[in-house]
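User: These chains co-purify. Model them together.
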Amino acid sequence: MGNKHENIIQLLPWFVNDSLGSKEQALVLSHLSDCQVCQAERDRLQEFQSLVQDYDEPLSDYRFSFKKLMGRIEAAEKNKESTRDLEGARKSRWLPLGLAASVSFVAVIAWLLMQNISPGNSDEYTTHTTVTMAGGDTARLALTFTQPIRAQTMRHALVETNSYIVSGPDQAGAYIVDIQVPDQLSETQFIDFIRKIDGVENATLINR
Amino acid sequence: MKSIHEIKSKRGPEDVEDLKLLQRVAVKDKVAFEKLYLRFYPQLSRYLNRLMRRPEMVEEVVNDTLFVVWEKADQFQGRSKVSTWVTGIAYLKGIKALDKLRTVPDQHADELDDNIEETNDPISKLGLDEWLTSGLDLISVDQRSVVELTYFFGYSYQEIAETMGCPVNTVKTRMFHARRRLAKLLPQLQEQGESSPGLLNSEGGSSKEKPSSSLKSNSDSSSDIGL
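Assistant: Joint model of the two components:
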């Protein structure tokens, strides 16, 4: 009973404004028929509601406010348009430059490829691909080793390649090493062979 | 996300009309927007006036609200009535404007309470408007919003929850506290009014009799909540 009464009394404002759903409304009506406290409360709430509804505050003319708002909307729309124009202008200004840059980039890449593919055009390239090294020749290389490298691994690498250290290490950690070419190999094959040795990080052929 | 043009209202003829207008506003129809403005201007003005107690700011906040409606009409999802959606925007805008002013309702209320006690001038009337606004000033902004949306706008507690973005139980609790506070306050105002000749007696005119009867019934009652 107590809980029901509390629930009903909580619902009374919305019973009075006629916004309760049909189930809740039926519940309130059934309770009201027996409960004088809730009846009195309902009457007070009805009176309060009519008081609230009767009291109307004076309103200013909507047209003036509407005009102000339309001014604001138009300003905002102009602002949006100019932002769009600005973005469009930015895009259209950068578009030709971007295109030009892209075309140039592609052209440069294509030119480089053409240069590299054409045989005999680049001394540097042909040095690594076509020049062969006779077995037993000595080649001078700059070698770097994976760090930290154990002395034993380094020694093993040197023994394996039948090479000896000319100087080093320099500030970059590179050793200048003379290595005996094991077989007839192109320079590229030779460099690949050296790089595969355990402990060798990098190998660069230097002028012989 | 559903397009506003796919939404169909089943919430009564008024909402059907509002939705039609809003759909036109979504495609930037300015004629429809003026009609929508005219439709909501009075109720938003009144609601914000009651909510904020800052008449000088009401017009600006109404326009802030309807500016959002203009901008976001195409995002309306039809989960509530159009009027609930618009009032919800107004509530948020009103609260935000008050936050900017750092208005603390209770401080405001204390000042007003002091003023009432110091009033001995018979011309300083506790007529209908003063009586009502004095009472509403002494409850919090959220409680005021619930009272106003219930008694003036006739919203259900579910609609109030949607408008204010809170659970329905919070709405009921706010109403409970508002009723308690108003029930305590209004008899005090009545006593003050009775000490001032011509305020609540028959000479005050018919509009002043109404609060009198209402106040008497409140002060007579010692019911569970009051109001």
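Chain B touches chain A through 46 residues (CB under 8 Å).
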